[in-house]
Amino acid sequence: MACLSLPYAILPSLQQTHSDLQGEDGGDTILIHRSIFSVLDKKCYEWKNMFKNIAGAWCVGSSHGCLVLLDNKATPFILKLSSLVCIHFPPFPPAFLHPLSETNFVNYLRKLFVIKAVLNRSPSPNDSNYILAIIYGCHCKLAFCSKSSTWVEISDAKRCYYDIVLNNNYLHALAQDGSIEVWDLCEEVPRKILYVKPTMEKNEQEEKEFPRDLFSTQLYMMLSGGEMGKHYMKETFYLKKIHNP
């Protein structure tokens, strides 16, 4: 499978059988098959026994040809689909998990903790300059980590965030109110270098078709192109509103 900059989608396998999912006592998961959908070539690739050597893994993102996963102790790592190489990151610090103990966090919140995870580029084992950024926790905070570093919460990011895009070392974050912030992660202390509050007109027809008591709304962001310089930044953003029943 080619390594793509576009994300992959993980789908249930068409070849999965009930017997694959049952152990001798009928309760333990043995084989987990998945289909990997490539957006670029519009094909599904079957992957049998996907988590053979990483039992209990939980996928929290897909970025630059990699899957971002948590192991059974909630420690993040990435799996390169082109080579099946695993690259591990430091565990989340206790401050991220507060007020839960590590045991309670793993048992009850591991699969809900990371809302989104993105990389700034396709990593390699000998490269320590790539970055993994996440939206995490019930308050949708921002944090990031490089392979050779520790996890850093962006403490000045005070909003609840819907989406993130990591372009080079610039983290673009879409907040709940539709505003966009850009953070420079190269600084010793992450620095906000851009804040944009778009004008969003109320659509009465949309309100009628998707009433708030029946639908939830989710905003997504796409960075279509940009130009970075030492003293300026010029970029184009697209926002997409999705209504979920």
From TrEMBL:
Signal peptide: none annotated. Residues 37-227 form the KIB1-4 beta-propeller domain. This is KIB1-4 beta-propeller domain-containing protein. It comes from Lupinus albus.
